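Ligand-bound model needed. iron/sulfur cluster.
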Amino acid sequence: MRRMSSSIVQGHFIRPTDHETPKTIGFIQCVGSRSEKRGNRYCSNICCMNTIKDSVLLKDHYPDIDIKVFYMDIRAFGKAFEDLFRRSKEAGVKYIRGLPGEVVEDPKTKNLIISVENTTTGEVEQHELDMLVLSVGVLPRQDGATIQKLLTLSRTADGFFMESHPKLKPVDAPTKGVFFAGCAEFPKDVKDSVTQAGAASARAEIILNADRIKVEAITSMVDKDMCTACEICYRACPYKCIEVDREKKMPAEIIEAACAGCGTCGAECPFGAVTMRHFTDDQIISQIEAILEEDPEEKTVVFACNWCSYQGADFAGISRLQYPPNQRIIRTMCSGRVDEEFVLYAFKLGAPIVLVSGCHFADCHYIDANRWTQKRVEKLWDKLEKMGIRPERLQLEWISAAEGQKFAKVMRELEEMRKKVTKEEIEFTKKALKDLKFKKEKRLAKLTADRAKAEKAAV
Ligand code: SF4
Ligand code: SF4
Ligand code: SF4
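Prediction:
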């Protein structure tokens, strides 16, 4: 932010270079903010009101000072903000709609001359100023990546920390026991920061005062006999709440108090060693079987994550949006839970099209579990292609809870795709996948064979 405080000396507002009180001051708004090409895309939230407040203070102390504010639009949305804006204009501050394109210094007077297109009049104007103040955008802290790694947090593309849910958990981090206040999460003024700090401390109090902490009902557990300590689940877990040691062959153990229940470990474990409570492989496989029991060629299997895509479907429903009735939804908590075996099994049973859908990247309820979904689906596309199965039959879509329209549109598009899948393609796919064995079956078979071998050797 600009440092106007350096221009206040012994209670007087001065120009630092010559210690004179400037007669004309220009403020340029949105410097480095709200720009696709230069600086940040976001609005820094506080600079409009800072400029307005500064202009009122300056006019109170120096009524003859000439103040011009160059802006795109003024964001004065808080309580009494509009009144302060009105006061500033009534005090004589001139608001000129347009951002200056050029600033040069007059070699004689040392004043600054700025050129600006006044977008209200359409005229290009020049203004001579004694002093220019830039409303520079707010940036996230540079050490955010270190804190993110230490606390397994998530950050937006802009570099601010991401809250667990923008509406329902606005001060909670996705990692339990971590809360946000102030500009850690996004640029905020003092009032919003104090409000958020109050909410964050209240949320923390709940944990500190609890005799017992409730853990999620939906968590993962590991069958230690099946586990090979490969560490893949540890790498995939967005919360790093799995203890495993490959060198010591120490099987994986889930720290249940920290497990959020995304199911990514279950989908990534190559040996079927992870069981996801309430969303077990058997439960999901039974749903696939039930959906495709009759007329599978007329059905599209849709895996939808609980927080975004499933809610998007709900929103499409309550908005009475029309789409064909051929889709059958299987809900998982996160798209990260959708094991490649579920997709292949659906194809094996005759599904013409399968959709995997989840939250947009920045919205993932489980930090970045949907990044694993994307990697998995990309690998599956390659796998299908190698097997001679059209990869387009597996679709991946990010649909948020607010995107009922998008959900309906995707469903209509899927139906068009489904109609183009031929009976021959479906039969070919069934044959190609007829020997598909679940990883759990394979691991159990290996364990049984190893045990039999060991027993034989012992005899
Ligand atoms: S608060 Fe005002 S000056 Fe600051 S980025 Fe937003 S619109 Fe621009
Ligand atoms: S369910 Fe998700 S949060 Fe829990 S251990 Fe597995 S990957 Fe980690
Ligand atoms: S991915 Fe599976 S086999 Fe590998 S360590 Fe984790 S639970 Fe064990």
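The first strand starts at residue 8 and ends at 9.
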